[in-house]
Design brief:
With about 210 residues, this protein is of the alpha/beta class. The protein is about 35% helix and about 15% strand. Helix 1 packs across helix 2 and helix 2 packs across helix 3. The radius of gyration is 16 Å and the shape is globular.
Amino acid sequence: MKLKLEINNDCFPNLVALSLLGPYPFKQLDIVIDGMGMEYPGIVTAHSIYNSGPSNSQQLKSMVVHEIAHQWFYGIISNDPYNNAWLDEGFAEFATSLFKYAKLKQSETYNSMFRIDPERELPANLPLDQYDESNMSSYVYGKSAIMLWALFKENGELKEAEEFLKTYYQFYKNKEIDSKEFMRFTRYYFDLKDDSLFEGWLQLEN
């Protein structure tokens, strides 16, 4: 099944909270409900999570929003998907939770299907071959999104998260970013004096 949405600035805010970043970057959005979730410029697919079979309605909704978020994060702000996968997957997951909280009135600011193994606290920004296949998603998708929410826990929460995303997007649209540049931007944005905020979350360069 293929759904086709003609996008304009009036209707799109009702679809996903990411419209606050700026206009949807393409003229049309196709949603194909067939196969696993995947993103491409102007088209997303959704239905199953890897080999787990069809998603339930809530999983499907989250998957569609997550894949749409990639139209901005990786579609417009690019990154190395092998060495810095968290910068598109983590931001897309973060944006999905933001949508749930802002548009669906979810009671918690963050609720993820990804869980972190407390016995193996790895950074979220390692190259993909440094994770086990069984736990890669927990770090690249889950931990990075959880820690992005933590930035705003005591600083305006939803309103500040939206403002941060808007500023981040406007500054880096049509550019490529890496972990080092993300940390530089975040230090400047929050006027941080050191890198302690990133310890245990991101691997810091020596």
